[in-house]
Amino acid sequence: MAGIIKFGGSRLAFAVITLMAISVVTFLATNVVPADPARVALGKFATPAQIEAYNEQQGLEEPAVKRYVIWVGDAIRGDWGTSVLSKQQVTDMVGPRIGRSLILALAAMLLAIPIAFLLGVYTAQRIGRPSDLAISTVTLVVNSLPEFVVGIALIFVFAVQFGILPIESSGASMGSGISQIKAYLLPMFTLTIVLVPYITRMVRASVRDISSQPFVRSAALRGVPHRGLVWRHVVPNASLPVVNVIALTMAELIAGVVIIETVFSFPGIGQLLVSSVGSKDIPVVQIITLVIGLGFVVFNLLADLAVLALNPRLRSR
Amino acid sequence: MTPALTVHNLTVGYLDRVNTTEVNVVVRDVSFDLHSGRLLGLAGESGSGKSTAALAAIGYKAPGSVLISGRSQLGDVDLLTTSVPDLRNIWGGQVAYVAQDASQSLSPLMRVERLLAEPLRLHLGLRGPALRKRTLALLEGVGITDPESALRRFPYQFSGGQQQRIALAVAMACEPRVLILDEPTTGLDVTTQAQIAKLIDRLVKDSGTAAILISHDLALLGTICDEMAIMYAGEIVEQAPALANKVAPRHPYTAALLDAVPRVDERGLVVGIPGLPATTAVNNCCAFAPRCRFTTDTCRAHHPELSDYGQGHTVRCLRSAELGALSSQRHPPVASVLGSNANTLLEIQGLVCSYRDSHSPPVVDDVDIRIGGSEIVALVGESGSGKSTALRAIAGLHRPDAGEIIYDGVPLAAQVTKRPRTQHRDIQLIFQDPHASLNPRHTVASIIDRPMSILFPERSASDRRERVYDLLDQVRLDARIAARYPHQLSGGQKQRVAIARAFAAEPRLLLCDEIVSALDVSVQASILELIAELTSQTGTAVLFVTHDLAVVRAIAERVYVMRSGVILEEGSTDSVFEHPEHQYTIDLLAAVPRLVVVSRD
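^ Those are the sequences you sent over. The predicted structure of the assembly is below.
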């Protein structure tokens, strides 16, 4: 038990340090880009006096360290500032989008994991046979396709050819329940298709590796039927390394969300990030970067805890 | 009485890795009977086919293996023609298997309760309280204290010996008629090994199961088995009843193997078997002919059949009738060089070592060791005794907490990097696993040349090359090996290269860390012979760290017995082994199985 607390504690401390580092880098990066917030806010016809007054009012003439401390303090307290461009509260702009992006990513992941496990375990039983070769080839090809290609292909098939799903997903934030759900489907399938091949390959390799362990032969010689062998002895052990991979993939997914949301005009944080970078809306960019960093850290932490829960050996250490 | 299992003419091959249409025969014409309540010992070096034969006999086909012929009769059922789904009803029920390393053979994520319950559910359909009662009884039967809490634990939470007890409980769960024990005591400490052997003996006698015990440890087999079979190149070459710990070998291989096994109760150097074991069955000649000291042209031209010498003693040798009982070839005791002990080369005083991240007591606690000028000194102890850490401290690989290491009158620096070159040259180290200690990307020649190029910069390249070939010759390796890479060599050859590399530095003190534990007995014997010969030529002193008491008896003049970081007993090997004083030494020596080799006609 002491081991768990120690392990959990060190991971938590590490997560906090990582977040601190992300916030520093984000703050520095958004300060060195050639974007004058006053220019963005007041437009190109503002006089130097107006700009100076704006900078003073916003505290932009304070030293960088002080501004950083104030910014981080405010962000932690939930005061995310106002958009330079729309003058809206950043909380109001980003909040609902976080929920939508999270639902999109989690739904894609929850769909991808069982599919990948089934395919991975199935192919690992048939290594070298035609069905394994076919599945392995297809997953390799899909794995090497960029997300937007998959997205456009799905749009072509389901929206253009069959017309059963909306061509773009701006409807995810409005309209009836059914139409909202429909707006989620195409970006979700796209992400799933992007995720499945990689996890499948990991599961296949891990199952193959565990299958040759002596304890599997010993179990077979205890009369354990094939199914029991696979699902009781092989898969639980094989899933340990895969859990870490899933967490890293999940982190990768956050980056994938930015592209997918843009392709589908999905009203999530990715889409907002892209448009805010374009319009140099620094407060929004800063907060979204922090939120994505937080997601990254949280998923890694969850993966560590999942491994801890699955592997008794780590728990006692 | 009808046997529980009758194996007849079992022949098994493996598909050739390169040419998959070819089959290499690894088990040929193996026949034996297993009787209820009796233990058949199956011995042989690695690659002799003993495990393959035993697994094939219960119908298990290893990946890539091909059953060529044979019968294995369990009651009315021939296990070799039974389909795998039907075999699953037999495996774990009527036939059980215990693998070598229990930590590898019990599913790591299953609690003991689930591991035990699995065969009981599958084969006996037990559920609920009946199941629980039976699992508790099984754990008690194998001597697990507090079975209630043991059920809730995972395998890794037990020691190696306890894990093997649990594996035995799982195997005995459904009261099998046939039990296959595949090296169940290998890798365990000597006292644990003795306990597990005793448990196996009791389980077999009490349950009336018919068992095969596979091992490379002839003494162990001789002491607990009712019958022994020796395998070589896939064939049983000799089979005889084991009577009261006595063996009377008639096959030259058995005799050679017995000469190669070090014994705690007999002083004298072991004799290695020249050459490497054959791993596939040989046609048209005797498989052992290339390594046998009795080989004639007939042996090279004809394949021997088993001949029966009565009382269940069969031998596969063309000359066994004419040779009769074979006598031992062991060397007379090495005369210890007088005065070698007189001058002190290395003296350790009050050595204390610990590991930084553990709060447990020091692993080496106030240890004093003295090594004379050209003495072979053994440091013996079970795993965790701190013997290897002490050796690492001498080598400068572990920084001691306290104590002095005085070499040739001068205190040694704690870190090897702080020591002068002359000391690097004088003190050389050989590790247990030659595979890990040889650079895989260097040829044998450059591996042996390396210490010379660093330690003797004044030597010319051609001088060094000449010396490499001298050294290869000294460690009895063919000069052609110089151009090879480590992965192209056998384990014994690699260890010889490691020895040649150590002697290339012309050391005065050789530190050996379990250098023969990973090797087969015949190879182990020739490495021990080699070390004894080289050190007697060069006058190099040796500190030999090992867990194997018999190896100590074979090679060392003096011995230190270590447990939990403390030296318990010290003295000349003969006096310690013949008149042990500390209770621990007495227990250790008592735990080692002993075999008496008799010559009889």
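The CA atoms of residues 97 and 269 of chain A lie 5 Å apart. The radius of gyration of chain A is 24 Å.

Shout if you want it in another format.
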